[in-house]
Amino acid sequence: MKKLWFLILFIPISALAQNSDVAAARGLAKRILPAWSSRIEFAHIPSESGTDVFEIESSGGKLRVSGNNANSMAVGLNYYLTHYCHTDVSWY
Q1: Taking 60 as the threshold, does the pLDDT of residue 9 lie above it?
Q2: What residues contact 30, with CB distance under 8 A and at least 6 apart?
Q3: What end-to-end distance do the CA atoms of the chain give, in Å?
Q4: H helix count then E strand count, the chain
Q5: What is the b/e burial string over 14-45, where b = at least 16 CB atoms within 10 angstroms of the residue's CB?
Q6: Which residues contact 5 (CB under 8 A, 6 or more apart)?
């Protein structure tokens, strides 16, 4: 048990936030694109000069959406759906 507490103390908080951002983006993809969500990967990238950023790329039949937080990843996914798939996802 002591070893477990030792390891928990050294997990960077930013790594936990990155994992929760990726998990949130995956959850969004599963809700709005359940049939395609397995083909979408999310990754965390560092912010550029304090602004939100996202990147999208396609490789090997999968879409990769990278962003500095969950919101940026969601915006990146929406950008892809709007500009490449010519579709609109909204509450209405």
Answers
A1: no
A2: 37
A3: 51
A4: 3, 3
A5: eeeebeebbebbbebbeeebeeeeeebbbebe
A6: none
Distance CA 8, CA 12 (A): 9
Predicted pLDDT at 91? 76
Prediction pTM value? 0.78
| 34-91: pLDDT as tens digits | 999 999 999 999 987 889 999 999 999 999 999 999 999 999 999 999 999 999 888 7
In the block, residue with structure tokens 């359940």: 34
Q: Is the per-residue pLDDT at 14 higher than 60?
A: no
For residue 9, list its beta bridge partners.
none
Per DSSP, what are the bridge partners of residue 57? 64
- With H, G, I as helix, E, B as strand and everything else as coil, classify residue 63: strand
Neighbours of 69 (CB within 10 A): 20
